[in-house]
Amino acid sequence: MAYRAAVVGGSGYTGAELLRLLAGHPEIEVALVTADSNAGAAVGDLYPSLATAYERITYESVSAADLAGLDVVFLCLPHGESQALAGSLVDTVAHVIDLGADFRLPVADYEQWYGEVHTAPGLADRFAFGMPELYRDEITASRHVASPGCYPTSASLALAPLVAAGLVEPTGIVVDAVSGVSGAGRGLKATSLFAEVSDNVNAYGLLTHRHTAEIEQALGHVAGEAVQVLFTPHLVPMTRGILSTCYARPVAGVSLTTDGLLGGYRAFYAGEPFVHVTDGSPATKATLGSNAAHVTVRYDQRTNTVLALGALDNLVKGASGQALQNANLVLGLPETTALSAIGLMP
Amino acid sequence: MAYRAAVVGGSGYTGAELLRLLAGHPEIEVALVTADSNAGAAVGDLYPSLATAYERITYESVSAADLAGLDVVFLCLPHGESQALAGSLVDTVAHVIDLGADFRLPVADYEQWYGEVHTAPGLADRFAFGMPELYRDEITASRHVASPGCYPTSASLALAPLVAAGLVEPTGIVVDAVSGVSGAGRGLKATSLFAEVSDNVNAYGLLTHRHTAEIEQALGHVAGEAVQVLFTPHLVPMTRGILSTCYARPVAGVSLTTDGLLGGYRAFYAGEPFVHVTDGSPATKATLGSNAAHVTVRYDQRTNTVLALGALDNLVKGASGQALQNANLVLGLPETTALSAIGLMP
Amino acid sequence: MAYRAAVVGGSGYTGAELLRLLAGHPEIEVALVTADSNAGAAVGDLYPSLATAYERITYESVSAADLAGLDVVFLCLPHGESQALAGSLVDTVAHVIDLGADFRLPVADYEQWYGEVHTAPGLADRFAFGMPELYRDEITASRHVASPGCYPTSASLALAPLVAAGLVEPTGIVVDAVSGVSGAGRGLKATSLFAEVSDNVNAYGLLTHRHTAEIEQALGHVAGEAVQVLFTPHLVPMTRGILSTCYARPVAGVSLTTDGLLGGYRAFYAGEPFVHVTDGSPATKATLGSNAAHVTVRYDQRTNTVLALGALDNLVKGASGQALQNANLVLGLPETTALSAIGLMP
Amino acid sequence: MAYRAAVVGGSGYTGAELLRLLAGHPEIEVALVTADSNAGAAVGDLYPSLATAYERITYESVSAADLAGLDVVFLCLPHGESQALAGSLVDTVAHVIDLGADFRLPVADYEQWYGEVHTAPGLADRFAFGMPELYRDEITASRHVASPGCYPTSASLALAPLVAAGLVEPTGIVVDAVSGVSGAGRGLKATSLFAEVSDNVNAYGLLTHRHTAEIEQALGHVAGEAVQVLFTPHLVPMTRGILSTCYARPVAGVSLTTDGLLGGYRAFYAGEPFVHVTDGSPATKATLGSNAAHVTVRYDQRTNTVLALGALDNLVKGASGQALQNANLVLGLPETTALSAIGLMP
Predict the structure, then answer these.
(1) In angstroms, rounded to a whole number, what is the distance separating the alpha carbons of residues D102 and D114?
(2) What is the per-residue pLDDT for D76?
């Protein structure tokens, strides 16, 4: 194979998902998988789903020296941890694809929403924001990529055609989203237990969820002006999937129809291999295990509101699939290599 | 026991739930259970959960003659079917509690949202709208009750203190709600199959869901002015439970805080046995199997928006429990008889 | 109320379930709830389902002195912990109902299956084995009760009529059971995470699960001879419920039919308020939230095998409900007080 | 592409799964998809997961004339329907791969277990039984293949090494299996509704499930003598996955150990790309969406019983994946083409 890669933090869900996808990649070989907390364990012990694909690979402790010289290093770490490691990587490995939050936002925004000091502010401009459909030029022009979060991808793809065309007010936008539990990761907390999640829905992070900043950043980038969003995430009893249901007010004087909006969406996403504009209501299950995002839009004349919906698999298009899409881009490979738009349904 | 009751349409989920609750009622005896499509079957065959409580009861075909003279007749029928039956009941049975949609709305609203002619318009004013916390006086002054829908109960209880106090604009209100699948009933359709619902979320009834009219009616009743709502329901992979997440804009000039709003909610619902105002984020599972509704509220200064949330069990407070609460009211029994506010968790 | 009770270990699932049931008990008042790891927290913070029922109760640290003089103390502790506490309770409180494993087995059996030394062997004969349908005389003659485990209750009730009548060989019995995840408790482990349990089934404790000893004990008690069982438990994606599917070989010379066996089961359980013998195949959901056990039996002529099945809610009849049933018995109250045989379905 | 295929009955779950797998096949082109009940609908309307892969394909009514000349015709029909169609296909298309039950068993066995007359008995010997690991020679020597059922594949792969080596008695074998709901197909029945399946487990087809005959046939083929099995299937709340837990008695005089048995299993399945012998307990989720089967074995000295377990995805290795594996075999393609052994986990 042409390229050698490492997955740093390979025992969490995004790491494991990346390993699943990379197992089918014809040009990238997984040379190293690290996981400090599980060092010494076989990949197949934690994820028997991967046992046959990574028979001889065990988790190792992370070491910048071992990573030097690799073509791609995927960082699947809790927020805050990439900052510590990235300094020793940005010039020693060809491409860093960070799946964490550390380099997605301007430093000031990061510090505001995450409530902590950024320890590597000088590296922030070394990373492009990795949402290919909205930032493809920036990504291909960059060496390293900060791959975005699951909610921001879902909400931004659902709303982008509206704000790009200036059809809706940039304030008063509501993003009401539901997510499967894998988005909370493999960490042990009572709120992730089956017995607590099953037959249950509740909202969390009311008013203050950190992904708000990413949604506002991506939509502001497309709009060319500041966009303000109120974002409410919910946990629902499923493992994977995010559905964002978004509400926006038309700008004064514009005349909207659902058909017109759907046509605009199809034009906006024409040629995109992973964004499917549907007339129906997007179902998360249609994207399960795939890198697809399904979006739709409606205009409600009665209340003069635009409704936009976006569905995706939070671990694929919302995390590891998009990270691989970014890796394909920076490596100059076909963007869809080892990525599918076909979901596992039922 | 003091009163004799019938459950008409007792093979569906709301009928079965009513039977579950009535089995523990000290003053109401179930004299008759009808279900045309399952006539002849034992209740325990369809619902083995009820086998020991209704050992000698089999479903019968519905007949107005058999119902005459009963103290309470609960109608658990698809919308449209109560209209045909109610004419022969309103003067021959003491109390009709209709769990369907036929007598909840003014006839014109019914015909607009349900898209069909109402065949018993003259009976509409014989039924009070059965949301006790907002219509208790009307209910106790009425002989018959139209018990409201699951979404309207959840959303109205979440928003009522706001509109009652005139704190938010009566237009531009968004209700984004998720529901367990039992809300769709026991009817056979592909969208209710486990394999289609599991690991899946999607929105439905975009812009046009019929419960919109009930929400607007209840909130308008409390507000004393017309209220306009955009309502988006979603199906999530659980059997019971509804969570409504609601967004409203403060009226100009009012100064809001979350603490102040929570205090207002506690005052508004003081003494209500089934509405629990919580500082936390309401979880549907906390209400499972109970007649409780849990609500909370937040003010977001950043976007100048009020966020209100309400959780309940759609088959209990959203249907059969509330119907029994209404029956207790019209019979002059303690409102909480045979109803609990304690959920099944985990 | 007539009696004052404590729940020791009230922050776990069996403790919370006991609190749910006790909230409806007319004769037992909850005076004290302890939970060392959550001392100071309000019951309603961990279980908002219980918020309205226990508004003024917070978890306290356990102290034998605080428990002295109470009428009933329920111990909901991990195995091994009751041993340390029971010595100071057996003579200072009227009745101890232990939901843990410490006093269910003869000391030698405990030490063999649990692999550790029993630290209070002298107390073992102070506790009756609390499976009322099979040990009612022993329970009412005892002051304290060791309430049995979830799997043993399910399997023993399913098989007891067979071994009591000497119809099947006492060896070669297979118990293949599935359980909801709440049986693993509220402890934080990866195997209890929603994302790991959902869409998954696997067997665990192969050949060596500790409940084997309890099943053998209960069946041996009924049979009047030693019974040997191979028990395989499985974890399935639901919160509550156990179904035991049991296989046994008829003794030589006996002539069996399914009808005859069902008749024998009905006779064996005649008058039992919580055991329902069904012609159909028992569904765990029919018992959800209730203290019911549903059982059935079949004879397969083709392979000359008897098949017996038993379903129950592991947190109720498999734990807290049965514990309360035992408390009712030792207090001389009607055995069914505050316990229902009606399940929550759907 | 080299070969042109049709999927007959492409609107059910096995049909849709086959379309998902075929979308990634480099040598087989889907020329035609039929579904009488959904004729005229777009594939993407029923399965939005497939929308981008089959944008221009709509379901057609089945017609033998349209199928003539194709290289492979997959029949995904309810049992009984392949018999009517196969007569006109066996000589006009290169290869028929039947996913139904019609040609899996000798005619007499079919008629006994399915309780109906076989209408095309003369075709029975035109089909090989399509379980490649146990019948590879027969498959490659045949033109047409009857692909086996989900339970038989799981149980047979779990038990085959034991009976092949003559280590266990051929009678008294118990297969206790659990299945996800997709095994029941997309047909509308109350027992497949989410609200009935969720939080529920029950056994079905007690003593008489038709897959018993296939398990006995496959094991008998391997054993070289008649094998008798008592099979009990259960429905559990998940969409995909089967776990078979199997019990067998060692033949007299043989000395067994778990390690020895595991070694035997590894030797038996050496080189098999889709059977993974694991030391741990197989989890269905490890196989989700893949063509893998995970198996393990234990010897219990205490009860002198062998325990064997097998897990797979009922729609892939248990149906459509195995059908494609068979198609690859008869077409002379690499057996693993377009099939993966990596599961979707979590």
Answers:
(1) 10
(2) 98
Other CB atoms closer than 10 Å to residue B272's CB: what's the count?
Answer: 16
User: Phi, psi at residue A267, to the nearest 5°?
Assistant: -65, -45
Q: Is there a contact between B111 and B79 (Cβ–Cβ < 8 Å)? A: no
The pLDDT score that the predictor gives to residue C151 is 98
For chain B, the domains span: 3-129, 151-314
Least CB–CB distance from B48: residue in C23, C24, C283: C283
**Which residue in the block uniquely carries the two structure tokens 């409806």?**
C24
- CATH fold for domain D3-129: Rossmann fold (3.40.50)
Q: Is residue C217 scored above 80 in pLDDT?
A: yes
Q: Which two tokens stand for residue B151?
A: 């979404």
Residues 139-198 of B with CB under 8 A from A: 171-172, 174, 176, 178, 180, 193, 195-196, 198
Q: Which of B291, B85, B315 is nearest to B186 (CA)?
A: B315
Q: What are the residues whose beta carbons fall under 8 Å from the beta carbon of D91, sequence distance 6 or more?
A: none
Q: What DSSP letter does each residue of C186-214 carry, written as one string?
A: S---GGGBHHHHTT--EE-STTT-THHHH
Residue contact B195–D237, C-beta within 8 A: no
Which tens digit of pLDDT belongs to each residue from A14-70?
999 999 999 999 999 999 999 999 999 999 999 999 999 999 899 999 999 999 999
- Is D150 designated active site? yes
Cβ atoms of residues B325 and B256 within 8 Å: no
Q: What is the pLDDT of residue B23?
A: 97
CA distance D204 to chain C (A): 7
**Which of the following CATH numbers is that of domain D151-314: 3.40.1010.10, 3.30.360.10, 3.90.1720.10, 3.40.50.300?**
3.30.360.10
Question: Using an 8 Å Cβ cutoff, are D307 and D174 in contact?
Answer: no
Q: Are strands D293-300 and D275-277 parallel, antiparallel or unpaired?
A: parallel
Give the pairing of strands B28-34 and B3-8: parallel
At residue C217's C-alpha, the angle toward residues C212 and C221, to 5°, is 150
Question: Would you tell me the crossing angle of helices A211-223 and A107-114 to the nearest 10 degrees?
Answer: 150
Model confidence pLDDT, tens digit, residues C248-293: 999 999 999 999 999 999 999 999 999 999 999 999 999 999 999 9
φ, ψ for residue B295, nearest 5 deg: -135, 155
Best mutation target among D154, D182, D201 (most C Cβ atoms within 10 Å) is D201
pLDDT, averaged across chain D: 97
Query: What distances in angstroms separate CA C151 from CA A200, A299, B329, B331, C193, one per listed residue?
Result: 26, 55, 44, 45, 21
Residue pLDDT, tens place only, A176-202: 999 999 999 999 999 999 999 999 999
Closest partner CB to C239 (pick from A13, A182, A194): A194
The residues of chain D scoring below 70 in pLDDT are none
How is residue A318 written in tokens?
Answer: 């919302």
Distances (CA, A) of C320 to C19, C141, C332, C336, D333: 9, 21, 18, 13, 59
Residues of C in contact with A13 (CB under 8 A): 195
| Shortest Cα–Cα distance, C228 to chain B (Å) | 32
> Which residue in A180, A247, A285 is closest to B174 by CB distance?
A247
- Please answer yes or no on whether A309 and B198 come within 8 Å at the CB atom: no
Query: Looking at CA atoms only, how far is residue D247 from chain C in angstroms?
Result: 8
Task: Note whether A234 contacts B178, CB cutoff 8 Å.
Answer: yes
Q: Which residues of chain B have pLDDT under 50?
A: none
D 232-291 near B (Cβ less than 8 A): 237-239
B302-316 residue pLDDT tens: 999 999 999 999 999
Prediction ipTM score: 0.97
Instruction: Quote the DSSP letter at residue B130.
Output: -
Structure confidence at residue B185 (pLDDT): 95
